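Hey, resending since the last one bounced:
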Amino acid sequence: MSIRNSDEDLKLILPYYRSILQRLRKRATREQKVLVRKAFILAVEAHKGMRRRNGEPYIIHPLEVALIALDQMNLGATSVICALLHDVVEDTDCTLKEIEGIFGEKVEEIIDGLTKIKEISDTQDSIQFETFRKILLSTSKDARVILIKLADRLHNMRTLDAMPSEKQQKIASETIFLFAPLAHRLGFYNIKNELEDLSMKYHDPGSYEYIFNKIRDSEAERDHFIEKFIEPIQAALTEKGMKYEILSRTKSITSIWQKMNKQQIPFEEVYDLFAIRIIVEAEDEHQKSTCWSVYSMVTDIYKPNSNRLRDWITTPKTNGYQSLHATVMSKTGKWVEVQIRTKQMNAIAENGFAAHWIYKDSNANYEQSVNDWLASLKDVLQQAEGNTGELIANVKLNLYSKEILVFTQKGEVHTMPAKSTVLDFAYMLGENEGSHCIGAKVGSKLVPPSHTLGTGDQIEVITSQKQKAHAEWLTFVVTAKAIDSIRKTLEKQQEDIIEKGKNILKEKFKKYDIEVNAANRDKLMSFFKYKDRKEFYLAVYSGKIYDAKIKRCFSTFSTFYRFAYFVNPIRTWIIGMWKLLSIDNAIRRKSTIDPKSVLLGESVHEIKQTIAKCCNPVAGDSIIAFNLTDKEIVIHRSNCAEAIHLSARYGDRIVKAKWRPQEENAEFLAGISVKGFDTQGLLYTVMGVIHQDFQVNCRSVQFQTSESIFEGNVMLYIQNVEHLNKLMERLRLIQGVEKVERINSYYGEKKKK
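The structure tokens again:
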């Protein structure tokens, strides 16, 4: 087998291959290196002539994925082989059987897990999440499936610039919705941060650029501060004869932006913009004590904030993360976060789940906890079989949730999602405990099933065989296992009631000498205006199908009624089809004019264009549109949380949208929040700027003051986002005004004068 590519392509490709071999020098046997070479040659041949959208040879992508697996995940030769071949089966004629014949069953199994599902169900929604389901189920057999998929997604995000905007939105949404939380859950913090930042780059490019430039512009000042801050720490560690390394890391762009929004503060007031990381060498049995010794040295130099101490050494995170986090006051009056960990702890923090291949003996508990989590995720995926919406909700619960540590009566420790209730804990113990739970003892206190648990709680579940699941339980449980168990129990209860309803209907038919058959049942359903059979049988069981009306239905069934009974469904179907065809024709006409974009506000007859109520976009905002139904296109701001969720779930329904040239008198409703110190005449000044300086009309004004602090919301009609931003900048200049922010919690609407 030989490589037949242009000399120019080979100049690009071969340095990647040499880099891979260099990194495998001490990680792979001679036999493994031979297989890596075979995989490289096969991948190059399979992708020969193929190019990515940015023009580079396609083979660069699997090579980059292999390097990410090596450098950022510390994986080995088998993972490199799978990374090189991960697109071969999907994009070429090479089969899984051929892969198995050359590289063995394990490589074939991983490649199969990484191969997308091509034909399933009838919607792109199903394809996206069934593929994700397949990946995660394969992960339960071999964790390298999801690790390589994460590496694949990271490189795709790094090269997303070459994709069209609607693809960028879809891929970025999937990334922030599923892959970034998954990286976090597996302990790959660097990958998680990069995925979040790259997603933000496409969802909210303006904010991304703002934070990026702020970080870049303050770099020199920050480096000088860090140098002065660590000098006395270095001296103390050196004096004690410790082997150490001190690093600094800047907070990710996404986390800075989230903190600014959550605390409503400017960039300059984010005190933990960066962190100092002290990495020390220590023997296994002295790791904890060494970290506390370093903590003591640091706090001898700088005064700590005791409320900000985080001890993840005594109680590690579920993904294995161990570190001491202390916040101390510098000599210049700035709070600084200091992270203290050993070299081994740092390897876990940097390499996440893959770290157990480096430190197998000391990482047994960590590996088991991750494997337990993967097993629980597999249960979630299997329980949500055939229900995409349920799958999304359950996976989201498992990926996003923060955690608490709770104890059984015997002292066994369990990790649960934050805000878990007694009922969640009961279902975690078992189906029987959950279904029959009537409450619990938390410590010595009796509490109901809805009681929210906290870290350190010791719980004794109390059950009664008379208790059974209730629909209202779904309103306060948070774990996927509890939700699924309750739903299945309720469905089983409903099935029993439906069966009883069927028997009751048979008895009623016999009572009035009505033949028991499907036609008479459907006739009665139509008479009582029920379309769903289950709902009809439930109504029969609950006594809503009265005997008097049953007799009337069958005694007054005139020739006209019989005719209408058969004709009406046909008429309804014809009208429905006519409407659908009309809408379909409108979309087709629209696509003929401009197949790639819908101009917001342009007349499209039957297709309604709606401003999303959740984010209230204004002319000039970066927007994304969804054709969720044949009748309506909904426009969101591109950084809207709901839009990100929709993009991840309905990526195929994204419609390229842009603002049309604005009409002179068009106005949009927008909201602003104003906060500051109450001074005489302040409200008059604020309203003067709005009405007189900017000639803006208000729909509503709400202001209140408390102990010299004022805050208020103003809903006003503005021309576009530039108009709004200028107004907000002018309001910030008013003496006493501290913060002016845009708010999105009002219904968006557009009007013309």
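Residues 559-593 form the longest helix (35 residues).

Sorry for the duplicate.
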